[in-house]
Each structure stands twice: as C-alpha cells, then as structure tokens.
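Q: Can I borrow your eye for a moment on a structure tokenisation matter? Would you mind producing a protein record, from residues through to fold? Write it directly below this note and I will take it from there.
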Amino acid sequence: SGLDASFLYLETAEMPMHVGALSVYELPRSYRGDFLADLRAHIAARLPLAPALRRKLAWMPLNLAAPAWVDAEPDMEAHVVGISLPEGSGLAELEAQVGELHPVLLDRSRPLWKFHVFDGLAPGPNGEKRYGLYTQLHHAAVDGQAAVALAQAILDLGPEPRAVQARPARRRKGSLAMTEMLRGALSHQLGQVGNLVKALPAAVGAISQVATQTAGSAIGETAASMWARVKGEAAPAKKSVSNLGLAPRTRLNTTISDTRAFATVSLPLAELNTARRRQGASLNDALLFVISGALRRHFVKHGPLPRKSLVAAVPISLRAKGDTAANNQASMSLISLGTHLADPARRLAHVLAASAAMKATIGSVKNLLPTDFPSMGVPWLMEALTAVYGRAGMADRIPPVANLVVSNVPGSTVPLFMAGAKMLSNHPASIVVHGVALNVTVQSYDESLDVGVMACARAMPEVAEFAAQIETAFEEFKGLPASAPAEAAAPPAKKAAAPRRKAAPAKKKSVSKATRTPRAAAPTAKRASR
C-alpha cells in the first residue's frame, strides 16, 4: 500500500525505518542444546504462519510506483545471527548492543527482517541459561498490531512448541516480467484514484463537522471569558485542552544523526492499573502522564524546560477488530502533555482533557484516513524531499509539530515461550526521525509494562537517566490522591502457562555492572543502578 511504501521512501542512513524489540529468554539449567540452532529451526517451522517473514520487495521499473511483495524463502543463517557477549553480561550490555545495531539498515534484496541472538548473559538466580534477542522488522511490512500478530504466530503458551501444519508447495515468484509489473501498477493506480474519489464527499463532511465543533468550542470558551471580564469576575476554567498548534522547540527537535541510544524500564502492570482506576484514567492516559512527568524532570535538570507544554505524537490504530494483516493500518494524533504544570494533579487533569479532546476529534475521521493512495511518481518525489530535508537541516528551522513519539501497543497477558525458552521481558525498539529525536514505545507483557526508550544519541544521550525518571514519575502517579470513584478490579486472567518464577533477590551495591543479569518482567519497578 502507499502507507507501507512510504516507510521505504523515508528511509535513509540517519533514519532506519525498522521496528523491533529487545527480549530476554530463559531455559532450564539442565539445557545443553544450541539455542541459536534451535531458534533457526523454530522460525523455519513457523514460516507458514508468518507471511511477513517470507516475502521480499519487487521494485517497479524506474521506481515509478510503489513496489510489490513477492514470495521469497529466507536464508535462516543470514536472518537469525548469533553474537557472543563477554561472560556475565547483563541488561546494560544488551541495551548498548541495540544502540549499535539499530542504525544498521536491513538488506532490501532479502525479506526485511533480522534476529540477533546474544549469548554470554549471566545466569538466572537458580542457574537458568539466559539469552538475549534483538529483532528487526521493517515498518513497511508491519505496524504495531501486525507485529503483535506475528509474535502470536511465532510464540507459544508453553515450553513445548505447538505443531504447525506444513506449508504446501508454491510457485516461487522471485521476479516479475516488466510488462506484468507495469500493467499491475497502472491498474492499481486507477483503482486507488477511484477509491479516493468515492470517499471524498464523506471525508469532506466529516472534516467540516470536526472543524465546526472545534471552532464552536473555542468561540464559546472565549466568549465566556470575555463576559466574565466585563462583569469583573474571574475567568471560568477551560473545559477542554486544545491539541492544535505548534510544539515548543527543544533539543529533541533537531536533525538527527546515524547514532542511537537505547534504554529500558519495566513497570508493574497491577500497580499501574490500581493507580489509574483511582484517577478514572485509561491505561494510555496513565502512560502519557508518567511520560509527561519524566520529561518535566529531564528538562528541569538538563534544560531548558519550555514554558509551553510539550506535545506527543501518538499513533492510533485504524484496524478493524480481528484484522491481523501484515501491513500498516495506523495514523498519528497529537496530545498536549502539560509539562509546563508543576503540580502533578493539575498536570494529570491536563493530560486527561487533552486525551479526551483527541478521542473526540479522531473518532469522527478515523475510518476515513487512507492507508493506500496512488503512488505514481511518489517514490522519486518522497525520496528526493527526504534527502533534501535531512541534508539541509530543515528540522532545525521548521517549527515542530511534536516533541516526541509515545506509542502503546497491547501485548500478551500471559507468559510466552519460543523454541522452548521462556520470555522474561519484551522491550520495544522503535523509530526516531528528523525533528523528533525521541521515541517511547510501551508494550504490556505478562505482569509488566515494558518500556523501550530510543533516541538519537547526539540529541539525547542520557536515555538511561530518562528511563529512571520514568520510574520516578510512576511513583509520583501512585502517590496522587484519588480523584475518581474506584472501579471494580477486573478478575485475574487465567494463565495457560506454568506459574511465574519469583524474581531474584536484590544484589548488593558492590556488584559491578558487568555482573548484572537481565531483569525479568517482575511485579516491581526496581531498576539496577547504572
């Protein structure tokens, strides 16, 4: 689709367009196998369920239009590679590896994915064997929800892998004739033009309605404020928060380099849910408030803290319920984070109002946002504009629309396994672009909310410190007095896997960084000192 292909056109050496995750897996102490070989065999067996892993790009002649996907058999030794770390390595070493590997572009002559398996990690508390896994999947192939569906195809609910039916033999389509490609491209373009023409009246009507509602609300609040001044009374408090307008310029709004810094943190999901229910907030609202508090702390320390609220770009899914297609069906919204407010209660009210305003606006136009559009000539145009935008440093001159990206992807509520190994944690690793040098992506897993912080290393090298500030902001959120009637807690989900192991006891402060072990997705928010 046009949306999928746009991630190819936007990709440069400074802006890799792949997403992924850093995960830690654990095997019993008695395991004597080769996990790298086992993982290759496991992925090969799951290819029938994972179309995104067994297709590659076929480019249109002269790159006139969006490319096509064609069948391809991945070479497991090229796509699943091993990396040996110094014995006793832990989470800090894994994060550093992700920072080094994330800027490396995927090979476009192959299927657009790669898995990196790390050995040499310190064992678990009872001598369990542990391995790290950093996955790369091009955004042209999957969005957040599609990546979750792919994980469901690859992962299992128990250590014993489920049986998968063998894939029937298919005709290999590694190449297409030029006439076939041109005919297909032209037919696709005509179809997209027709779809856009049909959708235009409904789109115009919905957008006009949203504009009228927004303008009416603003006019009403302005009139009420002016009338209060005439009567000599205090202006009434605003009932809504506007997400419209430009974001303040910060050091995050810059032309990025080809370096990355990555950090992780895990928050206990049960505690977060308890705290958000006391505030009448959704999980996404709670996440935005926590990130807002961390940003405020970070800019108070490293400065300057803008007097105007920072703005987050928040992806929204356009998928119908049950749609697991391996493509992109998402758009972007903007939410004001209230970072200019020192009082946590006022800041939370600001975030809740901004989130409500976004939902009211996007709900009217969500189903009208296109994920496919005519692409004739678009590759040349987008690639040229992207190159000029980066080389000319336009991000340093153009007023920013957002300061960072905050994404929340729902994940599994039960422990998962792959190739017999139990996943302990799963921290997302996402994209930063010119003008938006910080990306905070969150995915729920088992009993935790696993946070992955990706930044341009030149614009924000202190990502480990920022991850710690997320924990501090989480504690602040838990300490807020209740402002909403308590909700009935949802009954605990039944787990299909073995009971969760207890977390290892805290290590003494004298333990060096090299001896730290990767932390499991445990029901605490403790973070080893760096």
